[in-house]
Design a protein that fits this description.
The complex is a heterodimer of chains A (316) and B (311).
Chain A lengths: L32 H29 L2 E4 L1 E6 L3 H7 L2 H35 L3 H12 L2 H11 L6 H8 L11 H29 L3 H9 L4 H29 L3 H6 L11 H11 L3 H25 L9
Antiparallel strand pairs in A: 1-2
Helix pairs in contact in A: 3-7, 3-9, 4-7, 5-7, 7-9, 9-12, 11-12
Chain B lengths: L24 H28 L3 H6 L12 H6 L5 H6 L9 H32 L5 H10 L5 H14 L6 H9 L3 H13 L3 H8 L4 H12 L1 H16 L3 H6 L8 H10 L8 H29 L7
Helix pairs in contact in B: 1-15, 5-8, 5-9, 5-12, 9-12, 10-11, 12-15, 14-15
The chains are: A mainly alpha (316), B mainly alpha (311).
Membrane topology (chain A): Multi-pass membrane protein
Family (chain A): Belongs to the binding-protein-dependent transport system permease family.
Keywords (chain A): Cell membrane, Membrane, Transmembrane, Transmembrane helix, Transport
């Protein structure tokens, strides 16, 4: 970083010296409390109004029946009991799980491969920039772009498929293809970004480790297995935690292309919450599913951190 | 955050610079794969452009030509509402009134206000977390950080109810409010930089009697100009691409943003066949501001991707 090199002390303000009656930043105590309150006030308003209170209110709503008109009515665990017996909920869970597995599996494998390729043959910013481009586009754009390219009638991908002598695929219209297609679209969008994160991790592995391995006559595969992967593990775990959590919340691409269909094939959890809360005005039920999603995400993150030991490095 | 990727190749001293390397099939294979990945990432955008410059009738019969089929700017005119309904229908549009100018304006307003507010207020908060001493500072900071773990859908429902109760549905204010005061990431990101700034200048200014407000505006902000610019860039792109919240709160035409407008445009397909060229023209317009930012500040964006800030 070059930001700290500029010397800002060019101007010396002539102000009365009042050092003695105030506490400098180096002192202990609560001397800065009042000014701190001033600096933090706007962010605090946003935090309380749009993060803290909604979190508490969301949990409360999950124990109520509430259809916007009137007041929420406390019904205890009834929403959760209904969810346990709701085939659409279980379907959404299964569909989302299938999506996450496909998306994360593909995406992580491709990204790791790309990161290694970049690390070994080309580290230029232009290449990284080109790979990052899809990630900078919105989900909606990614969805529409592929909705067009994968069109059954005149999509270019199906033209290629036909040239290859294979039958055209209804990527969005058939139940078997719908989820893999969503996974592919999001893999396309996130592949380069994930690769860049892993690439940054690769860059932080000290070069001398590789030198030593080379001197010891280690093969490329051995170096990869015994050095790169163990040293990269903390970064890989962090990447996995972040991408898995994001993947569970897939919504935009589904909402724009299939709307949960065909039948229930792409009704992922977040889309189901959206439908229950906003199209069916069942805010209590929607909130209860959101609580469950929240718990699932917390559990998944916890398991990943615990079993992949994400917060420990093998270096040293 | 930006330091990881800019390592000098000191660790790799054996790198030949002038001598031509003998042909290495492994290296060639690696390059081929990399080029393939780049093609997959970039070529779809050219396909969008080519489609946007075609007419729908020609697209149907000429699905694979690399150049626009029956070149025209009609699709762009159509999405900006410059075609008469009759013209639009003749070119395969729906004939429904669409005006992406309004959506473009709304997107610009929405993204600019939220970015300016979030970055500025987050900088203030980050200053308090990094440079001021007060009781409970770390606890409050952990609480702020914790919100990064709450899935947006979870808070979106109660937030929607709040905005509705405040009677702010379908207003720009209602759309902007949840983002404008801060984002947890922005506070986290800037706090890292403020923590690493040298204290000396600040203390000298303090001895001269400068107040915190002065220090913040005249020393801290100017010194953190580069990370603040990066943060503003990333925040703007993120806000530009935001879909879920604007979909919930801004469903009427006068506040609808581009991303939501695109979804609506897609769903009004005329007589079965979608208006592909119009849809791709609209998609391109929605992507254009980000593409321009990327062309101008690509290096800054690319170098900001890394994990050193989170470790």
């Amino acid at each position: 970083m070059t930001t700290l090199t500029r010397n800002p002390g060019t101007r010396t303000p002539r102000l009365p010296r009042t050092i003695l009656n105030r506490t400098g930043p180096g002192r202990t105590g609560r001397g800065d409390a009042r000014i701190a309150l001033f600096f933090i006030a706007p962010a605090m308003i946003g935090f309380v109004l749009f993060y803290l209170v909604p979190t508490v209110r969301g949990i409360y709503l999950s124990f109520t029946e509430y259809n916007i008109l009137g007041d929420p009515e406390w019904i205890g665990l009834e929403n959760y009991e209904a969810i346990a017996k709701d085939p659409l909920f279980w379907n959404s869970l299964a569909v989302t799980g299938q999506y996450v597995l496909l998306n994360i599996g593909l995406q992580t494998a491709l990204a790791l491969g790309l990161a290694l390729l970049m690390h070994n043959v080309a580290k230029s910013t232009i290449i990284r920039g080109a790979l990052l481009l899809p990630y900078l586009m919105s989900n909606v754009i990614a969805a529409l772009l592929w909705f067009w390219m994968l069109d059954y009638q005149i999509g270019v991908v199906n033209q290629f498929i036909e040239w290859a002598g294979l039958p055209r695929a209804a990527f969005f219209g058939s139940e078997e293809w719908a989820i893999p297609t969503q996974a592919l679209i999001n893999t396309w969008r996130h592949m380069g970004y994930t690769a860049l994160l892993i690439f940054a991790g690769l860059q932080s592995i000290p070069g001398h480790v590789y030198e030593v391995a080379k001197l010891d006559g280690a093969s490329a595969w051995q170096t990869f297995r015994k050095i790169t992967i163990p040293l990269l593990r903390p970064v890989l775990v962090l990447v996995l935690v972040v991408t898995v959590i994001g993947s569970f919340q897939v919504f935009d691409t589904v909402a724009v292309t299939t709307g949960g269909g065909p039948v229930n094939a792409t009704r992922v959890i977040q889309y189901y919450i959206y439908q229950r809360a906003f199209t069916e005005s069942d805010f209590g039920y929607g909130s209860a599913i959101a609580v469950i999603l929240f718990l699932i995400l917390a559990l998944v993150a916890f398991i990943q951190m615990k079993f992949l030991k994400g917060n420990e490095s093998d270096l040293d | 955050m930006t330091t990881t990727a800019s390592r000098t190749p000191l660790a790799n001293p054996a790198k030949p610079t002038t001598r031509r390397r003998p042909f290495n099939p492994r290296r060639a294979g690696a390059w081929a794969l990399l080029v393939l990945a780049i093609a997959v990432s970039v070529l779809p955008f050219l396909w969008v452009l080519r489609t946007a410059l075609s007419t729908n009738n020609a697209l149907a019969t000429n699905a694979t030509s690399l150049l626009p089929a029956d070149f025209t700017f009609g699709a762009f005119k159509r999405v900006f509402g410059l075609q008469t309904p009759a013209e639009a229908v003749a070119e395969g549009g729906s004939g429904a009134a669409i005006d992406f100018w309004i959506y473009l304006r709304n997107s610009v307003v929405f993204s600019s206000i939220t970015t300016a507010g979030a970055v500025f207020f987050s900088a203030m908060a980050a200053y308090a977390f990094a440079r001021l001493r007060w009781k409970g500072r770390n606890a409050v900071f952990s609480l702020f950080l914790g919100t990064m773990l709450v899935p947006p859908i979870f808070t979106a429902l109660p937030n929607f109810l709040l905005i509705k109760n405040l009677d702010l549905l379908n207003t720009m204010l209602g759309m902007v409010l949840p983002y404008v005061f801060m984002t947890p990431f922005a506070i986290f990101f800037l706090r890292q930089f403020f923590l690493n700034m040298s204290r000396e200048v600040e203390e000298a200014a303090m001895l001269d009697g400068a107040k915190h407000l002065r220090i913040f505006f005249q020393i801290v902000l100017p010194n953190a100009a580069a990370p603040i610019a990066t943060l503003a860039l990333l925040t703007f792109i993120g806000q530009w691409n935001e879909y879920f919240w604007p979909l919930l709160v801004g469903s009427q035409d006068d506040v609808r943003v581009l991303q939501v407008g695109l979804g609506v445009f897609k769903s009004q397909s005329p007589q079965g066949a979608p208006d592909w060229s119009g849809l791709m023209a609209a998609t391109l317009i929605s992507a254009l501001p980000v593409l321009i930012l990327f062309a101008a500040f690509g290096k800054k964006i690319v170098n900001s991707i890394g994990f050193s800030g989170i470790k």
